[in-house]
Amino acid sequence: MAKVKVVIENKQKAIKVPTGMRMLMRRCCTAVLENEHFGEPAMVDISIVDNAQIRELNREHRDIDRATDVLSFPLGENGVYDRHPETGAYMLGDIVISIERAQEQAEQYEHSFQREVGYLVVHSMLHLLGYDHVDGGLPAVRMREHEEAVMQKIGLPRDGSYVL
C-alpha cells in the first residue's frame, strides 16, 4: 500500500468544504499511487481556493487569464523527485483546486460534488507523476484510462458522458 502524506489547506471562504472531502482527497492520492505502483512514501500538498485565486495563479504561471478547475505543480521530472530531508518521502508537488469551479462542473456534468473533486485530485496526481494530455493523442487516452481506473477503484465511476 502506498503511504502518502497529504497536506490540505483551505484558502477560500466562498464554499464550505463538506465533511469527508479531505478524507476523499487523501483516498484519491493513495489510490493513484497504488494504481501506478508507486510504493515509496510520498508527500503532496493540496490547496483549496476560489475562482479568483486560481485565475491569478493561472495567469501568473501559465499566462492564461481565466479561472480553471485545477492546477498541478510537479516537483519531479522523468520520475525523479526530491526527498524530504527529515522523512525521506518523495515530494511529488502541489495541487490547487478551485472548489467553486468544482461545484460548477459537478452541476454541469450532473454528477456529485464528491465525484468532481475526486476526479480533479486524481487528474492532478497523474500530472504530478508525469502524465500529460495537452497534445491529445495516445498520451491523453492513456491518462484518461488511468483516471477512470482509479475512479472505479475508489467507487466513483463515470456514470455518463462528459459531453453536453
Summarize the structure.
Helix content is 43%, strand content 18%. It is of the alpha/beta class.
What is the highest CATH level, the class?
Alpha Beta
Characterize the biggest β-sheet: 4 strands, mixed
- Biggest sheet strand order reads 1-2-4-3
Please state the average pLDDT score.
Answer: 92
Count of domains: 1
**CATH architecture annotation:** 3-Layer(aba) Sandwich
Strand-residue proportion: 15-25%
DSSP, total strands: 4
Secondary-structure class = alpha/beta
Description:
The structure is a single chain. The protein is of the alpha/beta class and 164 residues long. The chain has a single domain (4-153), classed as Metalloproteases ("zincins"), catalytic domain (Collagenase (Catalytic Domain)), CATH 3.40.390.30. It has helices spanning 21-35, 51-62, 99-109, 113-128, 137-153; strands at residues 4-10, 42-49, 70-74, 90-98. A four-stranded mixed sheet has the order 1-2-4-3. Helix 1 (21-35) links the parallel strand 1 and strand 2 (42-49). Helix 1 (21-35) packs across helix 5 and helix 3 (99-109) packs across helix 4 (113-128). The N and C termini lie far apart (37 Å).
Main traits of this protein?
single chain; 164 residues; alpha/beta; Collagenase (Catalytic Domain); four-stranded mixed beta sheet; 4 strands; 43% helix
SSE topology:
Layout: E1 4-10, H1 21-35, E2 42-49, H2 51-62, E3 70-74, E4 90-98, H3 99-109, H4 113-128, H5 137-153
Parallel strand pairs: 1-2, 2-4
Antiparallel strand pairs: 3-4
Helix pairs in contact: 1-4, 1-5, 3-4, 4-5
